[in-house]
Design a protein that fits this description.
- There is one protein chain.
- This protein is mainly alpha-helical.
- Helices cover about 80% and strands about 0% of the residues.
- It has a single domain, classed as MFS general substrate transporter like domains (Growth Hormone, Chain: A), CATH 1.20.1250.
Length: about 425
């Protein structure tokens, strides 16, 4: 049964795409921990950390729609090569600044913003490439396998990031991240896609028409915009609670080295969740995934009420298992119900909506914690995620949208695996 679930790995293009995705994921699981402690070493301020990580997300939000348009126009494999090389260059500069002691908060904010622009190109491109390389009947398994390896890279990288930050310094962790982007560019360069039919000149020249087409596809599906609106709230809460307050609480309680293991426990849960999702056959797949999201705030609750290491490990593991059910359900549903030639643009609207409030959460959580206390803020963020889940489930389309269970959907494209 497991062997059947790993069927997408027989496809050469998918394996190459997976190599690039996993390599960069490994480095990126180290980078946030290293960057967080680099900022704390410079200023010791959660507010400054929020500004640095918030700058990346804000620019990512501003450029992600254009990233989706480019991904639907240009060869996706070459676009991934270019974005990976740009990310390598920017992270190498950040590492050099931190290692030489010349890093400042304004410089880190500027480089984080540049990374956000690069991410706006790579994120929708990578997601929309899978349907070109995997036949419809294998897409749920392909999404599960991809997330399985992606999370395995995270589970290795997160504790390594904490250890490097504590033992050698945050700059070396960021340097490792830079090298992984270089390796990812090599993997993406090996992906071979068939020559596609060029789009009509009129369509290719009007970028705003492309954006409007993507918006029409997005807004016409109630289940899509309802879930994106809900995750706008969920992602903002997680970005502020775990991305900003998490490292600060860890520094004051169980230690920065162990914070990496807490994040690794979550990704371990995601790995188990992906294994479960490989064999999962649920007719209302999206509904199942949204219900599972109710557990995503568990880490913030424990972090605020009783931040001890064993409880944080358990909370992270449970949250990882459940949120992975949503992640795979969401990707499969998108690929199944959205036409393949518009998928990257719809992905970009999904990413825009899901991330819209994230920089607000990252920047605002520091002042809120200073005004109301870290414990109250974290518990409040947990309650906010539960309210968002309830809001998503109020949509009848979310509750009743049916999964094809392996039947071909409208996103079928006769191209090789990505």
């Amino acid at each position: 049964m497991i062997r059947e679930s790993l069927g997408p790995l027989k496809l050469a293009g998918y394996r190459t795409w997976l190599g690039g995705r996993v390599t960069s994921a490994f480095g990126n699981s180290i980078a946030p921990i290293a960057l967080a402690f680099a900022v704390l070493d410079i200023s010791g301020s959660p507010r400054d950390l929020g500004l640095v990580v918030g700058a990346r997300t804000l620019v990512n939000v501003l450029f992600v729609l254009f990233g989706g348009v480019l991904a639907d126009r240009l060869p996706k494999n070459l676009l991934l090569v270019g974005s990976s090389l740009a990310a390598f260059a920017s992270q190498a500069i950040v590492a050099a600044l931190v290692l030489t002691g010349t890093a400042t908060i304004p410089l880190l904010i500027g480089l984080s913003a540049f990374n956000g622009m690069v991410g706006a190109l790579s994120w929708p491109t990578s997601s929309a490439l899978v349907p070109q390389l995997v036949p419809p009947e294998l897409r749920q398994q392909a999404n599960a396998v991809g997330r399985l390896f992606f999370n395995a890279a995270n589970i290795l990288g997160a504790p390594i990031g904490g250890i490097i930050a504590a033992a050698a310094g945050p700059g070396w962790g960021i340097a490792v991240d830079a090298l992984t982007f270089l390796l990812a560019a090599i993997f993406y360069g090996l992906i071979k896609l068939p020559r596609a039919e060029p789009a009509p000149v009129a369509e290719r020249q009007n970028i705003f028409r492309d954006l409007r087409t993507g918006w029409v596809e997005f807004r016409s599906r109630t289940w899509l915009w309802a879930v994106v609106a809900g995750f706008c709230v969920v992602n903002a809460a997680l970005a502020g609670g775990l991305g900003v307050l998490g490292p600060a609480v860890a520094d004051d309680t169980f230690g920065r080295e162990r914070w990496g293991f807490v994040l690794a426990a979550e990704t371990a849960g995601m790995i188990i969740g992906a294994v479960i999702a490989m064999r999962l056959r649920v007719r209302r797949l999206l509904y199942f995934g949204v219900v599972a999201t109710a557990f995503v705030g568990l880490q913030m609750f424990v972090l605020g009420v009783h931040p001890v290491f064993p409880l944080m490990l358990a909370a992270g593991f449970i949250a990882g298992v459940t949120i992975e059910q949503f992640g795979i359900a969401w990707e499969t549903t998108m690929q199944e119900h959205v036409p393949g030639d518009k998928l990257a643009r719809v992905y970009s609207y999904d990413m825009l909506g899901s991330l819209l409030a994230v920089p607000i959460g990252q920047v605002a959580v520091g002042p809120f914690a200073e005004a109301f206390g870290i414990e109250t803020t974290l518990v409040g963020l947990c309650a906010l995620t539960l309210l968002a889940v309830v809001g998503m489930l109020c949509s009848r389309d979310v509750r009743h949208l049916e999964h094809a269970l392996g039947e071909p959907g409208p996103s079928t494209v006769k191209e090789s695996v990505a």
